[in-house]
Amino acid sequence: MTKTIVLFTTLLTCLVCQRSYAVEYMFDKTGQHVFITFKASHLGFSYILGHFKDFDGTFSHDPAAPENSTVNVTIDARSLDTDHAERDKHLRGSEYFDVAAYPSVTFTSTGYTGSAKGGTLTGELNLRGVSKTVEIDVNKIGEGDDPWGGYRSGFEGNVILDAADYGFPEWIGDVEVYLVVEGVRR
Amino acid sequence: MGIQISDTTTRYGLISTFLHWLIAVTFIGLFGIGWYMVTLGYYDSWYTTLPHWHKSIGMLLFIVVLSRGGWRLFVRKPSRLEAHRSWEVMSSWIAHWLLGIGVTVVLVSGYFIPTAQGSSISVFNWFAFPAVLSLPDQEDISGAVHRYVAYFVFGLGIAHAGAALKHHFFDKDDTLRRILLVSSHRNPS
């Protein structure tokens, strides 16, 4: 009986301690301290830059156990913006993002290797109905108390995607995605 | 009897006739360019040229259509022909209004697509129409309106032309001749 209680208490404590260590963060969407940008070649002359205006997500991060980090992101594909109405209209169309059929882009992490400073975040990217495992190079920018009573941590990430993998026209080629995410602790 | 500048009670004058055919031919041309240009691939050499022409001609047509609307305010149309039955008068009245409104909607919605994020529309690089509205999803909504109302106007235009030909060949009246600047009054043989 005593053994059982001890075991149970240990288990419970462990669960609690696990939870208290894996700090949950919400993307700072209200303060707009989150950015997902993309960069694609324009005929080899220069680049097209764009970003998504509407997305949300959460992440958990524990400096003492970075391998437990997790990230979830959902992007509204309609919200893409390249500062040119006609191009955005094309990009939302069936040949490109096909937002009518695939309204959202999602990323769900499956693992992390590296230190608390940076590493590689692995996860499933679902884009245009195609799910693929991608590896995002992650670099931690900062963590700590903010001036307004909250607690924040922020990261940047880089990944290069081959647009053709997700059913985009082949000539688009590689697209560089750069993201900056600042989370507020729940 | 020479050609009248303005409309008379029996026929359309030079200005009405000119505006009518200019708008009709330009609309059909724009419809064709629009239909074709959206099928062009990114690497096609016409990919930027045709939309530029389409937009330029469209904006010029908008000026013409506004002028025609203004002209119509001041000049009375010819009165109905004796031969026109009341259902023909009624249906043509509805069709004419729908054509006028439809063409205007197509032109305005077309203008709202490229200007949705503040870009202006250049008319053959002579001058430009600035953007005036920037609403959420404006380019997509305007795009859908532009496409489907254009289909509607094109279909109604075919019905309108068919009706005119019916008057000319079957009813053998002056309905079509009135807008062709040719002498009226067929010989009642």
Portion in beta strands of chain B: under 5%
Report the count of strand segments of chain B: 2
Which spans of chain A of ≥5 residues are poorly predicted at pLDDT below 50? Answer: none
- Counting helices, strands and paired strands, the structural category of chain A is alpha+beta
Give a description of the structure.
The complex is a heterodimer of chains A (186) and B (189). By secondary structure, chain A is an alpha+beta fold. Chain A has 2 helices and 11 strands. In chain A, β2 and β3 (46-52) form a beta hairpin. The model of chain A has no long low-confidence stretch (mean pLDDT 91). In chain B, 58% of the residues lie in helices and 3% in strands. Classes of the chains: A alpha+beta (186), B mainly alpha (189). The A-B interface holds A 78, 83-86, 88-89, 92, 169, 171 and B 42-43, 51, 113-117, 119, 137-140, 143.
Element layout with pairings:
The complex is a heterodimer of chains A (186) and B (189).
Chain A: H1 2-21, E1 23-27, E2 34-42, E3 46-52, E4 55-61, E5 70-76, E6 80-81, H2 85-92, E7 104-114, E8 118-127, E9 130-145, E10 151-162, E11 174-185
Antiparallel strand pairs in A: 1-4, 1-11, 2-3, 2-11, 3-6, 4-5, 5-7, 7-8, 8-9, 9-10, 10-11
Chain B: H1 14-37, H2 49-74, H3 86-112, E1 121-123, E2 127-129, H4 138-169
Helix pairs in contact in B: 1-2, 2-3, 3-4
Q: Summarize this, please?
A:
The complex is a heterodimer of chains A (186) and B (189). With 186 residues, chain A is α+β, with helices and mostly antiparallel strands.
What keyword list fits this structure?
heterodimer; A: 186 residues; alpha+beta; eight-stranded antiparallel barrel; B: mainly alpha
